[in-house]
# Entry
Amino acid sequence: MALAGVVVLVVVGSVLRAGAIGGNLRVSSDEQGNGANTNAILQHAPYRALRWAPGTPFVFALATRLDGHRAMPVVARSHGPAQYAQLAIEIATLTLIAVVAWSMAGAWAALAAVALAALYVPLILVTRTYLSEPLGGLMILATFAAASWARTRRPLAVVAAGVFAGLACLVREDLFPGVIVIALALTWALWRSSRRRAVLLGALYLACAVAVLTPWVIYASGIDGRFVPITDGGADSFFVGTYLPGHGQQYPDVLQFKSAICHRFPADCDHLVSRGTADMFAIVASRHPKLATNAAITQADLENIRHYALRRPLAFAGMLAEKAWRMWSYPWSGGNGYGTNPKTDTSRLQHLLFTALALIGLIAGALLTRRWSLITVTIGLAVLTLLNILNNAQGRDNLRLMPLLFTFGASGLWLAGEKVWPRGGLGGGDAASR
# Structure
């Protein structure tokens, strides 16, 4: 019955996602960046938009070639190869959610996890976009699942998991702190049996991930003329996220520079929203005229830390707490809004219910069962949240983490229930022993 339910939910989720294709009314700057990089790959041109990681553009390029074309139009209301690649990725994600949750906590946990993911509206609507979140969500889930497999202590399993982690970082560069967490967790898990072996296997995992990343880092650094750790967009995002006068948010940050922008770029004064952060960072860079643009922004990042994090720690911590709440309490809007009054195609009530249920399950499962996988995912999500709130955290930043949260949250909730009612009060059999 559970297997039949999982299959039905995967089919329903796939149909809903297919129905969302063509509903994108606009193309964001991130989508345009992925599209430009996809077409650069298809035309064998240098990959120059280094703000965006290469994983998703490579998948889109492959889908475009399989569709028989040598260019990918990046347009609204698209029914192109990128959207059908997104659909395939989402179906793979639902399938992996079922497999991981079933192996951890049994059939009914898998049914619950797939139900959460299949019916969660933002994961449905993102199929219509050119964003990296669908592939990022799949790869983040697969990375933590592969790490659990690596706990078999077999070097080959550790190597495979490390290689997979490196590939995942090429899709979402912000996953790398999670890879560090996994490496430390693997070392901790094996510490009691053999400290030397624990350190070696943890280092092996991390080394394999870095080895996969190294060719891309060398290539990207050669193009940019300086060291590029997967992407080159970190400095400006960090400035936005740590600028206390603007509460660490993009548009309020820009407003803090309005007078300077209007003085230096009077033609842009009435178009602050559409201009994004371009004028603001031109002002920031001009304050350090002897430095290159990225170096000037990096210097401004350090000034934010000195002036706000160190001199006003309570206000800075309050800002981060506010951003963490905003990141997890709001869903991604659906992508069709723009400016200060975005159109919201998703439900905050559904988001709060699904997220609260999964978070309660994850934390309860980690506390009651002490399972390595649940503890590691809990710490990993905390670290990834911290990374995001130090940047421009928003509802969209939780989207790629939802498959991981739903999978391990539903599993943790079921395992916690079995811990409280060990005699099969929940009908879970002996899944908790697996």
